[in-house]
């Protein structure tokens, strides 16, 4: 992968000046490369990682949902995946190997919102054959960034 992409992936706020210094390129060349990456869809979005436990509303509920589907003729998994990932509750959608076919990352304001999504929108789809929902209890690390601070061991040492 290109040096510029590697640096931006770690910190999207890296300045053009710093990118130029780090890569040995001119600011003009760096700007042109980034513009080209954005145009080609290599850079899709710039993202901020937020520790929602430190915000007022704690960010609601996040769930991972494994989905077993029947692939559709002529389009395989892509057709049903597209239908599912267009729901606004779906933040990420991945094709998997193994027991389940799709993995969804869902966000809702509460557990009932996620439950309603599964029972009213996801499960009724003809191609969906089964789901398995996991609710996230705590994030330790996201996108390579530690979210939960290192906690000191609060247990007393056992001595003899």
How would you describe what is shown here?
- This protein is α+β, with helices and mostly antiparallel strands.
- It folds into two domains: 3-40, no CATH class; 56-137, 2-Layer Sandwich (Alpha-Beta Plaits).
- It has helices at 3-10, 16-23, 27-40, 78-85, 111-122, and strands spanning 61-69, 90-95, 102-108, 128-135, 141-142, 145-146.
- The strands form two sheets. The chain has a four-stranded antiparallel beta sheet.
- The radius of gyration is 21 Å and the shape is extended.
- The chain starts with a helix and ends in a 14-residue tail after the last strand.
In brief, what are we looking at here?
The protein is α+β, with helices and mostly antiparallel strands. It has five helices and six strands. It has helices spanning 3-10, 16-23, 27-40, 78-85, 111-122, and strands spanning 61-69, 90-95, 102-108, 128-135, 141-142, 145-146.
> Order of SSEs, N→C?
HHHEHEEHEEE
As a percent range, the share of helical residues equals 25-40%
CATH level 1 class label of the largest domain: Alpha Beta
Distance between the termini: 54 Å
List keywords for this structure.
160 residues; alpha+beta; 2 domains; four-stranded antiparallel beta sheet; 6 strands; 31% helix
């Amino acid at each position: 992968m290109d040096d510029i992409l590697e640096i931006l992936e770690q910190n999207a706020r890296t300045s053009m000046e710093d990118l130029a210094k780090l890569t040995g390129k001119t600011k003009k060349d760096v700007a042109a490369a980034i513009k080209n990456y954005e145009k080609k869809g290599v850079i899709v979005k710039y993202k901020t990682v937020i520790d929602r436990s430190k915000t007022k509303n704690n960010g609601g509920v996040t769930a991972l949902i494994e989905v077993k589907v029947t692939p559709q003729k002529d389009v395989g998994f892509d057709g049903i995946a597209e239908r599912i990932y267009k729901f606004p509750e779906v933040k990420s959608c991945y094709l998997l190997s193994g027991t389940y076919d799709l993995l969804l990352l869902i966000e809702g304001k509460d557990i009932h919102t996620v439950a309603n999504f599964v029972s009213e929108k996801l499960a009724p789809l003809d191609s969906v054959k089964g789901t398995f929902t996991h609710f996230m209890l705590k994030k330790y690390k996201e996108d390579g960034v530690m979210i939960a601070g290192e906690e000191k061991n609060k247990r007393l040492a056992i001595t003899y």
